[in-house]
Amino acid sequence: MSIEHISFESRDDDHIVDPTVSCSACDAVCCRLTVVVMPEDTVPRHLVERTAQGLDVMAHDEDGWCVAVDHTRMCCSIYDQRPDICRKFAMGSAYCRAERKAYGHRNDREIPITVIQHGGT
């Protein structure tokens, strides 16, 4: 796990929000990131797990989603108690756009094609 996926990165252009970016047209990339839970956060403890490095983080389900995601309504089930880092993650911000782009590249895998030529005909 790399550091950029553990903490919120402030970027020079984070104040610029792209109005064309919408959560409804996204794979909820932010709900798949590692979210560190700080001592002052009021997240229900049963939703938190401790990493091998000793960090308290939001737990993920077997599909990689934050366990606080309500899959029926596609929203945070603990919105009023969500970690401070989630509150800082602004839709369409530079960080949001960068994570969406990185996520897209992780899924851009080419399928190798092997051409087999047959002799004759």
Account of the 3D structure:
This protein has a two-stranded antiparallel sheet with strand order 1-2. It has one domain (3-105). The longest helix has 13 residues, at 94-106. The protein has two helices and four strands. The chain has 121 residues and is low in regular secondary structure. 15% of the residues lie in helices and 8% in strands.
Number of domains: 1
N-to-C SSE string, H for helix and E for strand: EEEEHH
Through-space gap between termini: 54 Å
Unreliable stretches? 1-8
Report the total helices. 2
Class derived from helix and strand content: little secondary structure
The fraction of residues in strands falls at 5-15%
Mean pLDDT: 80
Largest sheet: 2 strands, antiparallel
Helix content: 10-25%
Give the tally of β-strands: 4
Q: For the largest sheet, list the strands in their spatial order.
A: 1-2
Oligomer: single chain
The whole-angstrom Rg is 19 Å
